[in-house]
Amino acid sequence: MAKDKKLVEAITAMDEDFAQWYTDVVKKAELIEYSNVRGCMIFRPNGYAIWENIQKELDRRFKETGVENVYMPMLIPESLLQKESDHVEGFAPECAWVTTGGNEPLEERLCIRPTSETLFCDLYSKIVHSYRDLPKVYNQWCSVLRWEKTTRPFLRHMEFLWQEGHTAHATSEEAEERTIQMLNVYADFCEEVLAIPMIKGRKTDKEKFAGAEATYTIEALMHDGKALQSGTSHNFGDGFAKAYGIQFTDKDNQLKHAFQTSWGMSTRIIGAIIMVHGDDSGLVLPPRIAPTQVMVIPIAQQKEGVLEKATEVYESLKGRFSVKMDDSNKSPGWKFSEQEVRGIPTRIELGPKDIEKNQAVIVRRDTREKIVVSLDNLADELEHVLNTMQAEMLERARTHRDAHTYTATTWEEFTDTIENRPGFIKAMWCGETECEQEIKDETGASTRCMPFEQECLSDVCVHCGKPAKKMVYFGRAY
Amino acid sequence: MAKDKKLVEAITAMDEDFAQWYTDVVKKAELIEYSNVRGCMIFRPNGYAIWENIQKELDRRFKETGVENVYMPMLIPESLLQKESDHVEGFAPECAWVTTGGNEPLEERLCIRPTSETLFCDLYSKIVHSYRDLPKVYNQWCSVLRWEKTTRPFLRHMEFLWQEGHTAHATSEEAEERTIQMLNVYADFCEEVLAIPMIKGRKTDKEKFAGAEATYTIEALMHDGKALQSGTSHNFGDGFAKAYGIQFTDKDNQLKHAFQTSWGMSTRIIGAIIMVHGDDSGLVLPPRIAPTQVMVIPIAQQKEGVLEKATEVYESLKGRFSVKMDDSNKSPGWKFSEQEVRGIPTRIELGPKDIEKNQAVIVRRDTREKIVVSLDNLADELEHVLNTMQAEMLERARTHRDAHTYTATTWEEFTDTIENRPGFIKAMWCGETECEQEIKDETGASTRCMPFEQECLSDVCVHCGKPAKKMVYFGRAY
Questions:
Q1: Distance of CA A274 to the CA centre of its chain
Q2: Do the Cβ atoms of A70 and B159 come within 8 Å?
Q3: Model confidence, pTM
Q4: Angle at Cα B106 formed by Cα B105 and Cα B111, nearest 5°?
Q5: ipTM of this model?
Q6: DSSP string, A23-75
Q7: What is the mean pLDDT of residues A129-133?
Q8: Which of A233, B56, B139, B206 is the most buried (most CB within 10 A)?
Q9: Residue A214 DSSP class
Q10: Contacts of A147 in chain B (CB under 8 A)
Q11: Helix (H, G, I), strand (E, B) or coil at A120
Q12: Which residues in B lie closer than 8 A to residue A33 (C-beta atoms)?
């Protein structure tokens, strides 16, 4: 058994060192490998397959709302980046610059896109002329690059994968509607598919996107009580349109600037899946996002008839689930460990005694519950188990989050909570950036969002005592 | 009618100026828009949707052969690129170099990937240790960048989209098998889905990939008689493995170098679709790759009941085909033109008289044939039309290619053909690079491939008269 346990033993316990646990899981589940370029990571097959499933599901949801996909160049001329002043100020320090092409120095240096607002604006300025050309609801799946100082797998890479939607509308109302619509697409996707409950709200001015009028966010709570910003949706008003000259002739024959939005979700969300659902044995993937939902593992496979029966079971499940069979020469215990580390939601154990009784054992990855089922209705039972698991994982995550969401009406309560009870803190805030910055400096807690569901916890700001304007979720964040 | 014809009239006739016809189609079908960076193009929704369909279909075929997808960094350190000498010599002149990150100059400059052999090799050197770790059959979908002097939509961009497969194997035989297997995947895909017949063969040493032992290619003939290399598959032997240190302990306990392959198909293939199937009215998309297969166009839609019936028809087709309805206020003639320019394979015309007779008219994009069908079995009829069209487009392309494939056994025949009858020329060749270069210098025709199906046309080289070693397809190429 010693050998069988090696995989699991190589993972640091969560409670001992959460950061090391995270790194171990990423490595042992073979999700990420480090590359030769600092901060650039390799998405290995197990990691990339999760992203492919995220793409498939999100892309379908996007297209149902009328989104069209495009692909824009990865290089942005410096002069184009500079047209919107807040935007360039926010991103220029993070740019990687191309200065030589072929063997020649370039007249103007080119930035590898840190985000593509400027390119979409430039395109819209060329192809939008009349209200009939609106709305434009474009999206692209691509990688972007930001010159980060410190990086961590999934959570912060120099180069990461994402989608970025960019839209243009004839009215301010329509832009706001689209901004909220896409935030809801993200939140619903995370709850229904990733089993991660989200707090929806608006970012403070300090935390909003460079160049945006309003940034909306979905925020999740990780197992260690830290917050993770999981997706954002920005309303630009007509600020970018003015900077980039996106004008159209409206129905009333007046020349107007378009109203714009942008919204993105990245491979960072895979970090959330790991840190919300994982345990000391490794990754735990919700069935609806798992590249492999069930691993068939024959027991005593050298005995007559076992492999044949296991293959029969595997074949019978293939059309309905994403299923694999591990008929390698490794011991069953080793196979269990591998399936567990990789977070495959269920395994089906099938040995000579099971076959005798016309049964199999379904083992849930999250609870380790063993469910003995008849082979006659294995597929239906499996579907039931996967659905139950999906629902219970969401419930468990919600319960954990709610149990780690605190309220503070005094500064003493606030500091005591942040030090001793990691989680979200709901508290009242005066609305001033200076006060927000002081809270962060003193406690390390930032404003996560001003939630759509406001409560009045008190009349005064938890920090400065001035009249309160908003209830805010605070937290230490990744 | 003048206005209705505007779209079509804006397209130069093929026979008048093929290059201009091509550019016009790309522009009028809204496939590509030029960006602010020279040679970097924007894939607009109509263009990108074709690529999405190509990806979906190719990716499915890849996975059926055991391919796993990954994602590698876009930046390659200069020192890593330099490890394989042929490879760096081939690609260094085309590299874009990042020299500044954030605001700091870099110690070592980084190249934006022109291709990713070096990164895959580096990964394999870390994760391949034993024969049990082999084979590795990885692929990535990404963009690559090559600093080209002249560019044309789809055919040659600085940045283009592609997939690049990279594999490692325990034996030379297995690597060769995989190389040919992937070439066949490409050829089958092109014939079955894109309706483009391919010549399969091997590249000469002069034309092979930088660092490869053997490069295999599929070559297509465009409408103007020029050749287009449409996909390549390379056998690297153990050359890269030696340069990058990819070693494994084999079953016999000996340390050996792995054998490798790589293979790619790019957005260039969209250029082939345009130039093989297009006509003077614009794009013609084969039904199996068309993002929209049928456009429902109501005639006299202001009349009572027309829009209702058209909507009913549209709804009835939706699950089975990719269908759109054009119920805008434009005239039917204008709608026809738009559907034709965009290459949508069929339209369904439905007017008051049709409704009276319980019928609709299916119009084929390629032949313009009008097929009157009963509304009672519209879907079956449409499927039949689409299948017939797909098959006939392939046949037409094959007939065109065969009619423009010539043989030359004397140099006079060769030069006469190349000047007066654009197409493929089959001819015998001595196998010497110097002679090959002379042929190219004198005629502009390059060796496209040494086809798998060899014929003996004569005993001597068509150019130098030395003993012939191979029959070669020659042609002027894009």
A1: 10
A2: no
A3: 0.96
A4: 120
A5: 0.95
A6: HHHHHHTT-EEE-SSTT-EEE-HHHHHHHHHHHHHHHHHHHHTT-EE-B--SE
A7: 97
A8: A233
A9: E
A10: 101-102
A11: helix
A12: 123, 126-127
